[in-house]
Amino acid sequence: MKLSEKLSKIQPSATLAITSKAKSMKAAGEDVVVLAAGEPDFDTPEIVKEAAIKAIKDGLTKYTPAGGTKTLKEAICRKFKKDNNLDYDISEIAVSNGAKHSLYNVLQAVCDPADEVIIISPYWVSYPEMIMLAGAVPKVIATKPENGFKVRAEEIKSAINEKTRAIILNSPSNPAGVVYEEKDLKEIAEVCLQAGIMIISDEIYEKIVFDGREHLSIASLSSAAREASIIVNGVSKSYAMTGWRIGYMAGNKKIISMVTTLQSHSTSNPCSISQAAAQSALVSDLEGKMKENCEKFEQRRNFLVKSLSEVRGLTPFNPAGAFYLFCDISATGMNSMDFSKRLLDEEKVAVVPGRPFGEDSFVRISFACSMQTLEKGARRIKEWLDN
Ligand code: PMP
Ligand code: GLU
């Protein structure tokens, strides 16, 4: 049987595969320490759960417009004004089944075959595959830990050619926790504006920034930057709502309309009940809760960086945001696949290899878990490498 050539080149999501393997080992009674998951360990806020129950009881159980309900879009517009000082009209918003789906759809709307999309390594595992699924080609710019894993504007300039359609920026980033400052963003925006390429700004970790930093959206730098940008965000990470599957995007009306048409033929609307829940998350007073969660992530980050710095063979990169620690393992003599496989088999600690993020001498360790779990994981890693 002849099957799709395009799909046969796509790898399954390593983050989802490892997390699900580790969770099923745990469910089977094995004492696994799961440091792989890309989701907050906190529960969805009670007020959000109540809103979902109310939505069911009120009969919000039917199809909604393909790009999301008007009331949710209005709540998203208010969020952009409050958090990012950006004015959007509801015609510039589309709601999808998670930020992953938003990114997938934007790439479908922007790319034609053989177009190029710039991504910065280490990148989130799904970026190259989503670009290829849109028929386009990922153009990877490598960065180094000694430069804070940050891309410089002139490197972007050299990577741009007549086939370049867009760049995906991710701040705070997965997997290295890189947070771009205003100065960096201004330089990047200038290069992109000059070349006329689109900036797809993945801001899903916006609420998780450390050491007193503030998240800044590249779209808020100027009206020209706003015009060139599509912001992707969602409720998964900020409100501990990964399973509800609500993400959204803001930007150019034409793209929003194309994405809405695509959704109308592929997924229809995002779940009506999840939309009501997401709306409640955005309009309820949850700032204090988010701040509290962020402080917990920061304490865990501090603990993990300190304890792994003391382990022979490991050089952790200090993340400024998100909830992952990207750790250099090259001094152990193992590549990331062997390291992760052996650590899981021999010590029952699940981490994600760096290879699918574009860095084979690193592993990604999630600290979206309790302090107790982290202590246990760090102890096992130390004992394993000491031996
Ligand atoms: N972007 C990045 C960088 C991520 O790590 C994730 C994690 N899933 C997403 C987007 C998508 O999030 P979701 O689909 O759960 O909204
Ligand atoms: N984004 C998370 C991660 O990187 C969740 C899994 C996924 O969607 O890939 O682990």
Give a description of the structure.
The structure is a single chain. The protein has 387 residues and is α/β, with parallel strands linked by helices. The protein folds into 2 domains: 5-44 and 288-386, Aspartate Aminotransferase, domain 1, CATH 3.90.1150; 46-283, Type I PLP-dependent aspartate aminotransferase-like (Major domain) (Aspartate Aminotransferase, domain 2, 3-Layer(aba) Sandwich). It is 44% helix and 15% strand. The chain contains 14 helices and 13 strands. The chain has a 7-stranded mixed sheet with strand order 2-8-7-6-5-3-4, with helices on both faces. β5 (164-170), α8 (182-195) and β6 (198-202) form a beta-alpha-beta unit. The longest helix has 23 residues, at 287-309. It is globular and about 60 Å long. It starts with a helix and ends with a helix. 4'-deoxy-4'-aminopyridoxal-5'-phosphate binds next to α5.
Question: Could you name the key traits of this structure?
Answer:
single chain, 387 residues, alpha/beta, Aspartate Aminotransferase, domain 1, Aspartate Aminotransferase, domain 2, 2 domains, seven-stranded mixed β-sheet, four-stranded antiparallel β-sheet, 14 helices, 13 strands, globular, binds 4'-deoxy-4'-aminopyridoxal-5'-phosphate, binds glutamic acid
